[in-house]
Amino acid sequence: MNKQKYWLPVLGIFVALIGCITINTPIKAADTIHENYVQKIKAKKELVMGTSPDFPPYEFVKNIHGKSTVVGLDVEVGQEIASDLGVKLVVERMDFDSLLVALETGKVDMVISGMNNTPQRAKSVSFSKNYYQSGQDLLIRQADIHRYHNYRSLSNRTIGAQTGSIQYSLVKQQAKKAKLKGMDKDNDLILALQTHKIDALAVDTATAKAFIQNTNGLIRIPSGFKTSSAGSAVAFPKGANSLVQVANQSITKIRKNDLINKVYLPKVSKYMTNHKSKKDRQKANSMWAYKDFFLAGIGYTLMISALSVCLGLLLGIFLSLMRLSKNSWAKKIAGAYIEFVRGTPLMVQLLFIYFGLGIVVNIPALLSGIIAVSLNSAAYVAEVIRSGINSINVGQKEAARSLGMSRQLTMRYVIFPQAIQNIWPALGNEFISLIKESSIVSVIGVKDLIYQSRLVQADTYRGVMPLVITMILYFIITFSLSRSMKYFERKMGHSND
Amino acid sequence: MINQQTPLLSTEKLTKTFGQNIILNQIDAQIYQGQVICLIGPSGAGKSTFLRCLNLLDKPTSGSVFFKEQDLTTLSDKQLDDLRQKMGMVFQQFNLFPNMTVLDNLTLAPLKVKQLSEPQMIAKAQSLLHQVGLSAKKEAFPANLSGGQQQRVAIARALMMDPQVLLFDEPTSALDPEMVGEVLKVMQDLAQKGMTMIVVTHEMGFARNVADQIWFMAKGKIQEMTPPEQFFQQPQTVRAQEFLTKILAS
Ligand SMILES: Nc1ncnc2c1ncn2[C@@H]1O[C@H](COP(=O)(O)OP(=O)(O)OP(=O)(O)O)[C@@H](O)[C@H]1O
Ligand SMILES: [Mg+2]
């Protein structure tokens, strides 16, 4: 009976969400008539560039003086545009898939991330002209050098490509006889290639060159794809024509002077090849050299987890009390909230808070992450607490009430302590899964453990070791939590045996 | 001693229904200061429901419950909380707080509700534990006590609030036979000290010896309200006669 009633508020939330989104679109469109993007950027004195730094030589992360810094061709291009505008360049890192959303929601002013100008993308953003044109290659294992010559010799083999990339569509459309495996990160794909999960990796020429310089046992062959050779371009918000114009002027200059080949590539390749001897490279790539990355990651992961556990617990208690209260409205709202949050993926909630609410209030990535994980955890905690409260024999409540204790006192001193004791193991599980699931915040560029391990992977061209370390670190965190939960459980439980 | 003018506790047309089922049907009853009432009747007659309506743990469907002159059905939640302190209740399943020591079970409500001083309450708890013969158990947890001991703690816990009337709902039904006596003894002592009590029980010996009145309940009504001698010798209604032959046979 109650189930049906929850529908109404749930529907309400849906309608509100859809309202938010649809109302917003026309406002954006209206902007384009008298846009003043250039003035706005000059006024704030900075140009924010979004990029996904796992794509050498276009953009990747380098440990410079102990600070992880985004470097690459695209950063140089961005720098050129920023200088031409007379403002400072600020680089925001995020997942490739999040870049366009970040652009549409105003989190960044432009996206330069080795992004190809495709008609599909051009529907939602405005592209500059191409600043760089690169061919398409395949990376294969050295041992296969006589077996594969281009995509045609890979029938029934698996070709990998970055999900959502132009190479992904090329393989899909042209290498029909081959199997296609998409992954988010080039580093994962390289790892897959090395471990025979895939037999070839479709990448553009510049990327292929970068990888074979730094990875043993791989070689580059021509892909054989027919391409309309869409080059890399800078993406701006739809209709930001004044910015496109400025960028096009900068790009004309870059191309006329061949800055990419003459200046940028040599500068960038220095970052990629500055470890001359193999020994030097190994030393620089030893995981110990990256301990600060992992430490920073642990810091963020612990902070997000700790804050989310506390906030989630408080809000969860509040929600469960609302759900058990006599007030039918409080009951319905809490019920609807819990159903809705448990019925939607955390990833989507996170993106909604960061990007969706970003339209109204600009919430920084870290805060968005904490809010999303807390709000999500609260719904689960609320259900755990409710089941704990319901598990307490009604006689306990009657005994307390018959002594003159009010509902509140009864809840606080009689029911709640016993409920917490009963649900302690379940709460512990909830907190542990919260810690693990908090890793999702890396998607919006929060620098947690997962994010840092990605950086280390990208920087060292080593796929497995950073993963192993990350795994061990997560395990240490969750294991200490479950141990301390057990300790408190024993401390509380003395009365019941 | 018995004040015939105003009852301590009384009901007027007290009715309680659960859905279609009329459990209490327009019951009028009076309990006077110092009286011991034994409420007996077949299972499902509504004895527990009646008791729970007296302190508004169950909300009557209609009719009134009076404590002295005050109609409980008209009171606010806050006023009801205050009034329940004056009516102690002892349950079949004891309902001690399992996560607290005996001493904490006793002192929790006075400390939180009345906000009395802790040393004073501990002293009072100790004297009440002495009264029910459990001085040695104050630091024990309920799970480590026998049923009879738990029920005596529950009685002491109810007494901590200085109630003017005690409601007992089958206080010995969950006990092993050898423990029934120790609990009945505590109750008899209370009766002798003048405590007003309403006791739902199947202990006919206790009813005969301690009660001032037997109330026989069946079919949503209190069918008889008579002194024990009369009730056990010549029950008026057929139902009571049947009930007695059944219970005395077993
Ligand atoms: N919360 C409730 N909802 C619905 N029906 C109830 C509820 N509480 C009690 N009843 C019903 O009311 C009737 C009387 O119950 P009550 O517990 O008062 O009887 P009783 O005389 O105390 O019986 P017993 O000797 O078995 O304890 C029973 O038929 C019971 O099923
Ligand atoms: Mg009963």
Explain how this protein is built.
The complex is a heterodimer of chains A (497) and B (250). Chain A is of the alpha/beta class and 497 residues long. Chain A has three domains: 33-133 and 231-274, D-Maltodextrin-Binding Protein, domain 2; 136-222, Periplasmic binding protein-like II (D-Maltodextrin-Binding Protein, domain 2, 3-Layer(aba) Sandwich), CATH 3.40.190; 290-495, Orthogonal Bundle (MetI-like fold), CATH 1.10.3720. Chain A has 19 helices and 13 strands. In chain A, helix 3 packs across helix 9 (241-256), helix 15 crosses helix 17 (407-437) and helix 17 (407-437) packs antiparallel against helix 19 (464-493). Mean pLDDT of chain A is 84; it is low at 1-12 and 18-33. With 250 residues, chain B is of the alpha/beta class. Chain B contains nine helices and ten strands. Chain B has a six-stranded mixed beta sheet, with helices on both faces. Chain B has a four-stranded antiparallel beta sheet with strand order 2-1-4-5, covered by helices on one side. The longest helix of chain B has 16 residues, at 177-192. Chain B is globular, with a radius of gyration of 18 Å. Classes of the chains: A alpha/beta (497), B alpha/beta (250). Chains A and B meet through helix 16 and helix 17 of A and helix 2, strand 6, helix 3 and helix 5 of B. Residues 18, 23, 43-49 of chain B line the site of adenosine-5'-triphosphate.
